[in-house]
Specification:
Radius of gyration: 17 Å
Number of helices: 5
Largest sheet: 8 strands, antiparallel, barrel
Shape: globular
Strand order of the largest sheet: 1-2-3-4-5-6-7-10
Structural class: alpha+beta
Helix content: 10-25%
Length: 234
Amino acid sequence: MLLPLNLLHLSLFLLMLSKQTGADVDKSEDNSSASSVQCPPASFKRFKELNLSAWTEHEWYVQQQQKVRFQDDYFCVRAEYKPTEVPSSFEMLFSATPDLSGFRNGEERFFPLMTTIDDMEDPSMQSLGFVEEQVRTIMPDYKGPIGELWVLYAGPTQDNYSYGIVSGGPPKRSGENGCIAGDEEEIYGSGLWLYTKDPIPEEGTIEMLREKAKELGFDLGVLKNVTQEGCTYT
C-alpha cells in the first residue's frame, strides 16, 4: 500500500510545472531537427500489442531511469496502476524516496498521476495527468494532461509481463550514443524507465532491457541505477 500524498512536494512541482510548460514545448520542437542524427530513429516503435490487463495487474519497480525534472530520487522507485470507473483511465501511483532512511521512516514521496488511453486499440500510448480531485485545491484551473507515457516493450509473454520499458514519448534529441527523450530540465516528452515485476529481478534482466532500449535507438548514457535492495515493501 502506498502512503498518503505529500502535498508540499506536489505543490512545489505544480508551481514548477506552470512556469515551464511553454519553454518545454518550444525547446523540444527546436531540437528535433538540430542534429544530423535521425531522432527518433527508424528502429523506434511503441509496443502496440500491449495487453493492458497484464500490464496493470501488479506493481512495477524501476531498476534504471533517466533523470527528469519532476523526479530525481533513485531509491525504492515504483509505480502502481489502479483501475478507475472509466475503462480507459488508470490512477498511477508513482513513488520514490531520497534515500533508504527516508523509506524506512515513512517519507516515501509520490504523485497521484492519471494515465488515459485515447485509443484502446493502441494502449501503449497513454496521456499523463493528475488525479483532479487531489490537485484541485492547489491548481484550480488544472485541465491536464502534463505529458505522455509510452510503453515500448514488455515480456516475456503477452499474459505475463515481468519486465518492460517506458518512455515519456519519442526520443527526439540526439545524444552521444543514440537518441534521448527530453532532458532533465524538461517535463513534457522526457524520461526513460526500465521496469521489472520484482524489486530484485533475475540475473541478466536489466542487461536485457538495456540492450532492448539500445535497439530502440536510445542513448543508454542517460540511465541511472535505482536502489531497490533494502526497500521492504508491504
